[in-house]
Amino acid sequence: SSKTRQHIMVSAVEVKLGSLVDKSAPLMVITLNSMAPDAKDRVGLTLGMDVLHDLVMEIDFDRSVIEFSPAETFVDFPRTGPMKLQWSRGGRTLGGAITGSKSIRIHFDTGNPGSVNMGEYVARSALKGQKSSQFLVTGVDGSHPHRSSNLPLLTIAGVAFRNVPASVAPDRRDQTIGIGIDVMRRFNLVLDFTRDRVWMTPNSKVGEP
Fold first, then answer.
1. Residue 171 has what pLDDT?
2. Which single residue of 55, 61, 118, 167 could bond 122 by disulfide (Cβ 3.0 to 4.6 Å)?
3. Which value, to the nearest 10 degrees, does the dihedral of the CA atoms of residues 39, 107, 194, 56 take?
4. DSSP-based three-state secondary structure for 49
5. b/e string for 163-198 if b means 16 or more Cβ within 10 A?
6. pLDDT tens across 164-195, in order?
7. Rg of the chain (C-alpha set)
8. Cα dihedral 147, 149, 152, 153 in deg (nearest 10)
9. Does position 207 have pLDDT exceeding 90, yes or no?
């Protein structure tokens, strides 16, 4: 059953991203101790769109580097054409394909260290005939049972991945999927939030298991 949780909201703090400074960023403080005891000694910061909406973000997984630049002055875009981001399920998504669906909307799930997550609606066709096992997922909204399986095919940014580990949320009914860090790290990304577009360039990790 779901539980109501109280968090602390700070009206404005100063956030510095390299040479960029936002002096009026709202901040929400979330305590994870009750949900994830092993995280009690960790301090993390999640950046929302209030901070990122005027920036271009470059994520170079080859060098483990993230760079932020003002969108109005950034010119170093990759030569290949970008993919358009569209709004779906309350966030930005891009197009791709999976087993059982020639076209599906995909969102970046940066909080997921794994590969792919989806709901039961998508899993019915995408994971048909695949073996699965149960496990427990703990997040800011509590702990929930999920099942894991292998997605036979995921195609994104022109690259096909086979037998991709996937997790399924039984109470999720939308028709999108999320890709986690294990898929994203195989590309170097340039995200232009002001124009809703993304470049995904395969890097040295694209062929790793």
1. 81
2. 118
3. 50
4. helix
5. ebebbbbeebeeebbbbbbbbbbbbbbbbbbeeebb
6. 999 998 888 889 999 999 999 999 999 998 99
7. 18
8. 50
9. yes
